[in-house]
Amino acid sequence: MSLSAFSDSSVPVAEAERLSARTVPKGQQTKHAIVQAAVTLSTQVGLEGLSIGSLAELMHMSKSGVFAHFGSREELQISVIREYFATFEQEVFYSALQAPKGLPRLRALFDNWMKRVAVEIQSGCIFISGAVEFDDRPGPVREALANSVQTWLQALYRAVVLAKDCGHLSADADAQQVAFEIHALILALHYEARFLKNPGSLARANRGFDDILARYGVPGAPDFSV
Questions:
Q1: Residue among 109, 202, 126 at smallest CA distance from 163
Q2: Residue 4 placed within a domain
Q3: pLDDT tens digits, residue range 168-223?
Q4: Torsion 182-3-128-134 (CA) sign
Q5: d(CA 102, CA 90)
Q6: How far apart are CA 210 and CA 164, in angstroms?
Q7: What CATH number is given to the structural domain containing 26?
Q8: Rounded Cα–Cα distance for residues 193 and 201 (Å)
Q9: CA angle, 134 as apex, 5 and 32 as ends, to 5°?
Q10: Spatial CB neighbours of 161, under 8 Å, sequence gap ≥ 6
Q11: Number of domains observed in the structure of the chain
């Protein structure tokens, strides 16, 4: 399913479980379990802190057993990024499609994102830590990270454009600027809440989103408040 669904009003049918014990071979089930464990570990130690050895110990497997599923540490890191992104888009973007198009959907997207951040404040965010680890290191891992981030930023932008097309945002609002400011709120929240541990950061981020709507929104639009 493509995040381009944010450009129309369609609501996708709920996806079947990506892995089913009845249909997925045991080897794939094992690989999926390893990837999920690697995602949890990566939120704590970063992608660079992830190793075949530490993962093998966590899974009570041999190093060769873990290695056989991926072939390299780099492929393991990329698998972690893909799994992390799949969870992110399901929790943040796809569930927001249940809301009416326009501003209600944009708010649902932001609210879902805030729920995700509330968890990541405690566990860490692979996208943010990965950006620090790989910002100046070209290669497949950086490319996988950047592609994931660019995909959901484009979905955010399309949600803003849709709200504007619905007449819920001002006709002269710069959609790229609005999306930039929403993304900036999330990044500031991670820094304030996780790194500086400033109390009230979540409330300030929500207030910041309301301020964005107050500046760019159209009074009387659905879910608009001043």
A1: 109
A2: no
A3: 999 999 999 999 999 999 999 999 998 999 999 999 999 999 999 999 999 877 76
A4: negative
A5: 19
A6: 16
A7: 1.10.357.10
A8: 6
A9: 60
A10: 7, 175
A11: 1
